[in-house]
Specification:
The structure holds two protein chains of two kinds. Among the domains of chain A are: about 1-90, no CATH class; about 430-570 and about 590-620, no CATH class; about 630-750, no CATH class; about 765-870, Immunoglobulin-like, CATH 2.60.40.1230. Helices cover about 55% and strands about 10% of the residues of chain A. Chain A contains 38 helices and ten strands. Chain A has a five-stranded antiparallel β-sheet, with no helix packed on it. In chain A, strands 6-9-10 form a three-stranded antiparallel β-sheet, with no helix packed on it. The longest helix of chain A has 23 residues, at about 670-690. By secondary structure, chain B is of the alpha+beta class. Chain B has helices at about 25-40, 75-95, 100-105, 105-115, 130-160; strands spanning about 1-10, 15-20, 50, 55-60, 65-70, 120, 120-125. In chain B, the strands form two sheets. In chain B, strands 2-1-5-4-3 form a five-stranded antiparallel β-sheet, with helices on both faces. In chain B, β4 and β5 (about 65-70) form a beta hairpin. Chain B is elongated, with a radius of gyration of 19 Å. Classes of the chains: A alpha+beta, B alpha+beta. Chains A and B meet through α1, α3, α5, α7 and α9 of A and β2, β3, α2, α4 and β7 of B. Chain B: InterPro entries: AP1_sigma, AP_complex_ssu, AP_mu_sigma_su, Clathrin_sm-chain_CS, Longin-like_dom_sf. Chain B: It is a peripheral membrane protein. Chain B: Belongs to the adaptor complexes small subunit family. Chain B: Keywords: Cytoplasmic vesicle, Golgi apparatus, Membrane, Protein transport, Transport.
Chain lengths: ~900, ~160
């Protein structure tokens, strides 16, 4: 028969250790299981109560779920009460057992005892599923008209849940809900107003309907505000703040975008805003809600001033809670009235330094919203000052925000560069690679500031403390502009003169190279910088060579490869070294950001297919892995795609070079070929690895176009932090470069793919979570109107698609002809495995662009799926 | 809406949990562990709000217990504090100067009261008095049922003697 509930709790509490507790609970559970098995009816409610306690301690209790259902089905109130409680605690809406109670609930909803109806409504309101909501909505709706306020209020909140689960039922509940607004009972009013709010949020028609009732709500609110002391609902001298807040919230929805309705409520809003006492939490809660309503509706100016003044008072409050909500609201207000918020700037900046993380976050967001061209210098200074003393957890957020602001509002480039350097000094480990990359782009574009930048970097670097970003930028700039440091050219007016020798510069790079705190990426930066310096500073050439050679045995493949490749350049190719190591051409910000955004949008996959013949199409392809010529622009795309990888894109590949030197038109003699052999072999293996293990190669960056002279003209070098990357040394020249990448993107080798028409990059016509459709275009020169589109279907999910049907529709001026697809099923995780040819004739060629609507139906796990979409992003000229 | 209500003791023990939006048992345990770590470590002078996974957790400490409610980001935090206080006052009146032990041994009663205050994560009654009234009425119903059954079992016991 077991112990009493109280005794069980006592014995569990008496346990000294967790192990002891576990054993007591295990014993209890065993007793309970037996009782449940024996169908012990007398103590069932006590057993379920025990189970709930055990559940609260975090032990599994699923074996008791059926007992709750039995209790609910039992007749008496005590059993039902504990049964419903158990149902709500032990189950949640995802358990199918819940279906079994639908009938009991239905019976109890029409019970004569109000408390049993109340239990059923409560359970339904807390855990009902969409199905139950649909089944029982008529019963609940009936109860909204009950003459018992206890049942009405519960039915109203139960309806809130029903509407959340089944939004179609909004119309059904709108009329009964408006009946609740005239109720006398506060509980019903609070629940009824909530229900109306929920309906308005769910449906525009309901919103229109309740706009007609706005005067009723205003009246209710007015009665609350002017009524005298009502002991039952009074909180700190305010009558029913909960109801007031709910009414204000509903008014906010109704008054938004409706000047007439806003007008009706403006008097009462003014009254609430002026008459509510703000010395207690309840009053402030109402004021807070009222301010939000005033700012959201079509309010008149005077009312807004009132609201902003309230926020100003909040901001000056000593209570952190009030300051928090003030900041929270000001963020929303800032777009409406920036001037008013600017007045509180000093206070807000103070809040960024608060000891409370919740307040700091809000304040930081607000400060960022307040920054503009005129105050950016002051605010940035404040924030950077604070950055020095802030707690480490907050530095990441703060750094990201500051760099965003500096980037957006910088009045001139010099200030931008100064601030970024400062930021890297103060919080270098939090500066992301995106930020350093755009800094480098700016430096490369600012011809007159390059020498200034490199000198500033050199100065601050004396106090370098292992900050990754600072190390990378410094090393990159030294590699590119190191000689400016030595010549001291282009000094700005107020700059102190600086004398630096060649070996000082190499010292800096060496210190980064040898530092144990930096990652191999930064070391790779340093190696490249050394290589570049070797041509700028012939005096240090031997030292540089020695430094680079130290990495020939590096355990990091990337570094080892670079060291070997760079070593070859230094020892064997002095004739072309100068040209090869010239300064990077100016990095194009627009292209960079365009490419970058493209990468962010996830359209980068389009770049996988090459489109234009290579500028150096005559390059010999020794092993014939890749047959297609590749366009430079695509290489850029590929590189950009890889930008997200930790390792940085390649500037030039020694191997490719060697290979080309051996076989290509410029030629360095046969000896070079043989000397390059070992590394060619290594890269070959790498290539194989890549093809085998598509999804997870460390970093694949295509090797770059052949020759030194080309390097400058090559769009590739638009990638800012040019460096070699892991498989930069793919030995096959440009075509091979595409292959490992294509393998990444798709399983089948693309070598059978016919080269798409020049000038028409392929596009992604449709992309959903599981399905991707991309289009390749070909056009025959004799009929410019006709385009042959090859649609490739990729299944990104792990379930196969069957009965795959692709349909397309076009406007009248286009003719469309669909050929059958290669297969009606798309294998799981397959890429471009099924293709279909679409022939399109554009009769308005040259006047109108192609458009197409797509409809795709298929089955996954026996379930029918339908996707539709429109393709507007056809390349121009089709 | 209120997504869940948690009562956590200063030692991190859970005293009451009520979930209004679906969470699996595993998620529940994780949420409780995560939040109790965050809340218990906060100093006394800080604000009562925590931004957490796109939602807000409003908490308040009463003696040895932390009352926490998780609400949507655009809900009124100050009002949520007031709801917590409302619930605490009702508990206080029912138990007469409520303490943690009352809530441990009568945890089911605390749940019954909560169910009279909130449904579907929304406030249903703003009058403490009427909550007290309906809870008392239901308790009487239970007492009646108990008396009846004990008198019934007495009769049966006597009859079978």
């Amino acid at each position: 028969m077991g112990t009493r509930l109280r005794d069980m709790i006592r014995s569990i509490r008496a346990c000294k250790t967790a192990a002891e507790e576990r054993s007591v609970v295990a014993k209890e559970c065993a007793v309970l299981r037996n009782a449940f098995k024996d169908n012990d009816q007398d103590y069932r409610h006590r057993n379920v109560a025990k189970l709930m306690f055990i559940h609260m301690l975090g032990y599994p209790t699923h074996f008791g779920q059926m007992e709750c259902i039995k209790l609910i089905a039992a007749g008496s109130f005590p059993e039902k009460r504990i049964g419903y409680l158990g149902l709500m605690l032990l189950l949640d809406e995802r358990q199918e057992v819940l279906m079994l109670v639908t009938n009991s609930l239905k019976n109890d909803l029409s019970h004569t005892n109000q408390f049993i109806v109340g239990l059923a409504l409560c359970a339904l309101g807390n855990i009902c599923t969409a199905e139950m909501a649909r089944d029982l909505a008529p019963e609940v709706e009936k109860l909204l008209h009950s003459n018992n306020s206890y049942i009405r209020k519960k039915a109203a909140l139960c309806s809130v849940r029903i509407v959340r689960k089944v939004p179609d039922l909004v119309e059904y509940l709108t009329i009964p809900a408006s009946g609740l607004l005239t109720d006398k009972h506060h509980g019903v009013l609070v629940s009824g107003v909530k229900l109306c709010t929920e309906l308005c949020q769910a449906n525009e028609l309901a919103l229109e309907h309740f706009r007609k009732h706005v005067s009723t709500m205003v009246r209710v609110l007015k009665n609350l505000v002017v009524s005298g002391y009502a002991p039952e609902y009074d909180i700190n001298g305010i009558t029913d703040p909960f109801l007031q807040i709910r009414l204000l919230r509903l008014l906010r929805l109704l008054g938004k975008n409706d000047a007439d309705v806003s007008d009706i409520m403006s008097d009462i809003l003014a009254q609430v805003a002026t008459n509510t006492e703000g010395n207690k939490n309840a009053g402030n809660a109402i004021l807070y809600e009222c301010v939000q309503t005033i700012m959201a509706i079509e309010a008149i100016g005077g009312l807004r001033v009132l609201a902003i003044n309230i926020l100003g008072r909040f901001l000056a409050n000593r209570d952190n809670n009030i300051r928090y909500v003030a900041l929270n609201t000001l963020v929303k207000v800032v777009s409406v009235d920036t001037q008013a918020v600017q007045r509180h700037r000093a206070t807000i900046v103070e809040c960024v330094k608060d000891s409370d993380v919740s307040i700091r976050r809000r304040a930081l967001e607000l400060v960022c919203a307040l920054v503009n061209e005129t105050n950016v210098k002051v605010l940035t200074k404040e924030l950077v000052e604070y950055l020095k003393v802030s707690v480490p957890e907050f530095k990441g957020d703060l750094t990201a925000k500051i760099s965003g602001l500096v980037q957006k509002f910088a009045p001139n480039k010099q200030w931008y560069i100064d601030q970024m350097i400062l930021l890297m000094v103060e919080a270098g480990q939090y500066v992301t690679s995106d930020v350093t990359r755009s800094l480098v782009v700016v430096i490369s574009n600012a011809n007159d500031l390059q020498s200034y930048t490199v000198r500033t970097l050199y100065r601050v670097f004396q106090a370098w403390d292992g900050q990754e970003s600072l190390g990378q930028v410094t090393v990159w700039c030294l590699g590119e502009y190191g000689e400016m440091l030595v010549n001291s050219s282009n000094a700005l007016e107020d700059e102190e003169p600086l004398t630096v020798t060649e070996s000082d510069v190499v010292d800096v790079v060496e210190s980064v190279l040898k530092d144990s705190r930096v990652t191999s990426t930064t070391v790779a930066f340093a190696l490249t910088a050394l290589l570049k310096l070797s041509s700028r500073f012939p005096v240090c050439a031997d030292r540089i060579k020695a430094l680079i050679f130290e990495y020939k045995g590096s355990v990091v493949l990337e570094l080892q490869q670079r060291a070997i490749e760079f070593g070859s350049i230094l020892t064997k190719h002095n004739d072309i070294k100068g040209a090869l190591l010239e300064r990077m051409p100016v990095l194009d910000e627009a292209t960079y950001s365009a490419k970058h955004e493209m990468g962010v949008d996830g359209h980068h996959s389009t770049a996988a297919v090459a489109s234009e013949p290579h500028a150096n199409g005559h390059v010999k392809q020794p092993n014939g892995i890749g047959k297609q010529p590749v366009a430079n622009s695509n290489l850029v795309d590929l590189l950009n795609f890889m930008d997200d990888q930790p390792s940085n894109p390649s500037l030039s590949s020694g191997d490719t070079l060697l290979d080309l030197l051996g076989d290509g038109p410029i030629g360095g003699g046969n000896s070079t070929v043989s000397s390059a052999k070992p590394s060619v072999g290594g890269a070959d293996m790498l290539l194989d690895l890549l093809s085998l293990d598509g999804p997870s190669p460390p970093s694949t960056t295509p090797a770059v176009t052949p020759l030194a002279g080309l390097l400058d003209a090559d769009p590739l070098s638009k990638i800012p932090l040019g460096n070699l990357s892991l498989d930069g040394g793919t030995p096959k020249g440009p075509p091979a470069v595409v292959d490992p990448f294509a393998d990444l993107m798709s399983a089948p080798a693309p070598s059978s793919t016919p080269a798409p028409a020049p000038g028409f990059p392929s596009i992604v016509a449709m992309q959903t979570s599981g399905l991707k459709i991309s289009f390749d275009f070909t056009k025959s020169p004799e009929s410019p109107k006709t385009t042959i589109i090859k649609a490739s279907y990729s299944n990104l999910s792990s379930n196969p698609f069957t009965d795959f049907v692709f349909q397309a529709a076009v406007p009248k001026f286009i003719q469309l002809q669909l050929e059958p697809a290669t297969s009606a099923s798309v294998l799981a995780n397959s890429s471009n495995s099924v293709t279909q040819v679409i022939r399109v004739t554009n009769n308005a060629h040259g006047q109108k662009a192609l458009v197409m609507k797509l409809r795709v139906s298929y089955k996954v796990n026996g379930q029918n799926m339908l996707e539709q979409g429109q393709v507007n992003n056809f390349p121009a000229g089709l | 809406m209120i997504h869940f209500v948690l009562l956590i003791s200063r030692q991190g023990k859970v005293r009451l949990t009520k979930w209004y939006s679906p969470h699996t048992q595993k998620e529940r345990t994780k949420v409780i562990r995560e939040l109790s770590g965050m809340i218990l470590s906060r100093g006394p002078k800080l604000c009562n709000f925590l931004e957490w996974r796109g939602l807000k957790v409003v908490y308040k400490r009463y003696a040895s217990l932390y009352f926490c409610m998780c609400v949507d980001a655009d809900d009124n935090e100050l009002e949520t504090l007031e709801i917590i206080h409302h619930f605490v006052e009702i508990l206080d009146r029912y138990f007469g100067n409520v303490c943690e032990l009352d809530l441990i041994f009568n945890f089911h009663k605390a749940y019954y009261i909560l169910d009279e205050v909130l449904i579907a994560g929304e406030l249903q009654e703003t009058s403490k008095k009427s909550v007290a009234r309906v809870i008392a009425a239901q308790d009487t119903l239970i007492e009646h049922a108990k008396e009846q059954s004990s008198s019934l079992s007495n009769i049966i016991a006597q009859a079978t003697k």
